[in-house]
Write a structure and sequence with these properties.
The complex is a heterodimer. Chain A is built from six helices and 16 strands. By secondary structure, chain A is α+β, with helices and mostly antiparallel strands. Chain A has one domain: phage-related protein like fold. Chain B has four helices and nine strands; from the N terminus they run E-E-E-E-H-E-E-E-E-E-H-H-H. The chains are: A alpha+beta, B alpha+beta.
Chain lengths: ~300, ~200
């Protein structure tokens, strides 16, 4: 009698290998500081405002200028000029497109497999990543700088950044975004330090509130780690930053749904439109998001440029 | 009907760039800027300007799409904030400080400064840096008067902040690493102080 062996069954009765039904995500950094309350001020939507570019006005109010004593009780008081400035934020379209054929859809093995629904859901992460890239580009624009090019980030750089904010009377809370390399160097430096200042690592409860990317706190400042932090200075450095609330802001644009357009919004400010290109038997999924990010006040932030 | 001639592009042989696309998500174009209050001291070279980058990605710090004014408003904003935006040709040989790798795995061009290139080893990309060339360029920006020399009071203010850090470690000298670091920082501080003209 011939034993029934798996190896004999392969090809006709058994499969040599089988692709599992759930497609896992490759390693990806999903930190999103836009979900952190106060870190990046939301300035509203440009829909119906008459322009895609917003000018955010600032004026020396509420104590920027102060009362002064008059020389005498009947001295005529001169006018104090109002100092004003403004910054612009341009809301632009960001997009990504995926195409999937009907055959690829119908052979999908369920909700965890690649199909139209999964690709739409994935666009939430892709939108988030694009937004973080825009934020990282914005962080490059702070004029104040702590750290030295090609030198590992250390505790001195941290204090230099924090003291710069304190000297400018920047109100808290403070936030810090670092590249993983910067955080690693900083923690290495911290281990050699004495004194009472301690790194407070993220706990499960804090992660639940602050989301992925929260690494911990030091000296009262929440630290977020993100690989989107840009390379700088011949790619020798990374340009992280520390800032106080109000330093950064963002604006959005939200298109309204039109009759006859098949679209969904899997996340606020993200629209995914489903199109059927002529005679191709494919779904074209186009994700649109309209936003712009910008530094609102230079004095409220510091770049931390240290070795990559 | 006139005869049309077509010359096909080479697809094999030495004329073809058969390297695979660079593994990179790409990076947007940029301008480089300096700010009169931002300097750093490099012991081998002296005081050099911190170079800042103005991203030209639409949606960043007021940059609009090209058809909507591009970076015009953003540049005005940076200048208003005290920055000096360097011209692309503010280099010794007049060649732009920005370079570009067009072929990347993401399909997005990778813009980078000219003082480094890339080496792809397996699936990793290693930057190859010309630190000396970069520092020499930064130094020459001052020497050629492309940018103003640093104000001594600005440099002293920077050193004052560095001195704060040295004072902070006064009580940590029982830790050998901190003692060595403190001595090195003091040496750099002294050299930086002497280099103020």
């Amino acid at each position: 009698m011939t034993t029934v062996l798996h190896s004999n069954l392969e090809a006709d009765l058994r499969e040599a290998d089988r692709i599992e039904g759930i497609v896992r995500t490759t390693l990806v950094d999903q930190a999103d500081l836009f979900n952190v309350p106060g870190a990046i001020i939301y300035l509203g939507d440009v829909a119906g405002m008459g322009s895609d570019t917003a000018r955010i006005p600032y004026a020396s109010l509420d104590g920027s200028d102060a009362f002064t004593a008059t020389a005498a009780e009947n001295t005529a008081v001169a006018t104090t000029a109002l100092t004003d400035t403004s910054v612009t934020i341009a809301v632009v379209r960001h997009a990504i497109r995926r195409d999937i054929s009907d055959l690829a859809n119908l052979t999908s093995r369920g909700s965890g497999d690649i199909a139209t629904a999964r690709l739409v859901a994935s666009m939430v992460g892709e939108y988030s990543k694009g937004r973080m890239n825009t934020l990282a580009d914005s962080l490059d624009g702070f004029s104040a700088t702590a750290g030295t090019t090609t030198v590992d980030m250390d505790v001195d750089d941290w204090y230099e950044a924090q003291i710069t904010l304190q000297l400018a009377s920047v109100t808290g809370p403070y936030f810090c975004a670092l590249h993983p390399r910067q955080l690693s160097d900083f923690q290495t430096s911290l281990r050699a330090e004495g004194g009472a200042a301690q790194w407070q690592p993220a706990t499960a409860a804090m992660l639940a509130i602050k989301g992925q990317g929260f690494a911990g706190s030091f000296n009262g400042v929440d630290v977020y780690v993100t690989s989107t932090v840009n390379l700088f200075n011949t790619s020798a450095d990374r340009a992280g930053a520390m800032w106080g609330s109000g330093a950064l802001g963002w604006k959005t644009g939200t298109p309204s749904f039109r009759p006859g357009v098949i679209a969904t919004s899997p996340s606020p400010f993200l629209t995914v439109e489903l199109q059927r290109p002529d005679a191709t038997a494919t779904d074209a999924l186009i994700g649109h998001a309209y936003y712009g990010v910008g530094i609102l006040e230079q004095a409220r932030g510091v770049s931390i440029i240290t070795d990559a | 009907m006139a005869i049309q001639e077509y010359e096909g592009e080479a697809y094999q042989g030495a004329a073809v760039d058969d390297r695979p696309p660079l593994r990179s998500p790409g990076a947007p174009a940029f301008r480089l800027m300096v700010h009169p209050e931002q300097w750093e001291f490099i012991p081998e070279v002296g005081w050099l300007p911190h170079i800042k980058r103005m991203s030209l990605a639409p949606g960043v710090n007021g940059v609009a799409h090209a058809g909507r004014g591009g970076d015009t408003a953003a540049r005005a904003q940076y200048i208003d904030q005290g920055f000096q935006i360097l011209r692309y040709t503010d280099t010794e040989d007049g060649r732009s400080y920005m370079s570009k790798v067009s072929r990347t795995t993401s399909g997005q061009p990778l813009h980078h400064d000219r003082w480094h290139s890339f080496k792809q080893i397996g699936n990793s990309v290693m930057p190859v840096r010309d630190r000396d060339g970069y520092n020499a360029w930064r130094k020459r920006l001052v020497e050629s008067k492309t940018i103003e020399a640093p104000d001594p009071d600005v440099l002293r203010a920077i050193l004052s902040r560095k001195a704060d850090n040295i004072r902070r470690t006064q009580a940590m000298q029982h830790i050998p690493e901190m003692k060595a670091k403190r001595a090195a920082n003091q040496k750099t501080l002294d050299a930086a102080s002497k280099a103020i003209k």
